[in-house]
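Sample entry copied in:
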Amino acid sequence: MLTERLRPNIRTLKPYSPGAGGGIKLDANENPFPWPEGLAAEIAAGLEPNRYPDGGAIALREALAARFGLRREEIIAGNGLDELIALVLQTFGGPGRALLIQPPTFGVYAISAAVTETPLLEAPLAAEGQALDLDKMLALCRENPVAVIIVCNPNNPTGALFPREEIERLLRESGALVVADEAYGEFAGAEASMLPFIHKYQNLLIMKTFSKAFGMAGLRLGYICGPAAAVAMLNRARQTFNVNSFTQKAGLAVLRRAAAYEEQVALLRAETERLYLGLKALPGLKVWPTRANFVLFRPGDAAGWSEALRARGFAVRLLEGLPGLGSCLRVSAGTPEETGAFLRAAASIAQTDKGCVDSGRGPE
């Protein structure tokens, strides 16, 4: 059988599920606002789809370097962060070179570890998903050949923001390459980013994306900032034409309109706060504070809530069996109209769900 030819590390791997979607999409942490009028036509003008894209994404990297006060050699672009996560582990991980993560966190880390045969170690988050267990993390680094640590900051799905001082301690004491995944960094603010530390630590990489704040989830554009030596190593394993021409031009066009997107980020922050406060006001829910553009909450029956919301036209992310937290729902910030409609639906469900409230104990 064909399945018998599978590599052992792939045989038991479950494909990543991005969620069911449909209805009013509040399940994928996207920017819900449409592109400015005429932007797509502007990007397509002069495009030569019969020609290969710029394999080095030079213009895009130069624009990003100017934005952050870096050099082009300190940035690498990729086909979304999923590709770049795999690239980091292809380059620095592999058999005998472990990856350390902190569940509950982004599921692609574990998938990429399995595909690259990188041993996976876990130091679960403390304080109900709100804090790193630094002592546990550093102990695992002392006792195991940890090559890479990925810290999702703000964390998906809990929304927690970890202090920069704690990531600095990992940089100083772990002996590993520390990757700060700042996919949601624009929502936390520049003061939370590790970008100012690139020239201080040679073992620091920072992952960022256009998918969230910049409304390019469908075009797949991510990038890594880090010391030039580390970026050069990643370039050795990078696919030659990994970012297509349209996406490169779109990234440049979006950066030219950065001020408009910063206004959208401010709106989404306000809608996220509105979601948080609205859910906190409902009976029977455990709601986590957040510094991203989504809110994690736990009703008594997460699956039942998911179905009830879907019946009312809302797609949210059902996350079953989160380590230390149990089964929860994650809802993304939408437009003001979508937020209002969602909160009305949630209030309706809470009124009919009084017999199945959150016990506050988390998983049994």
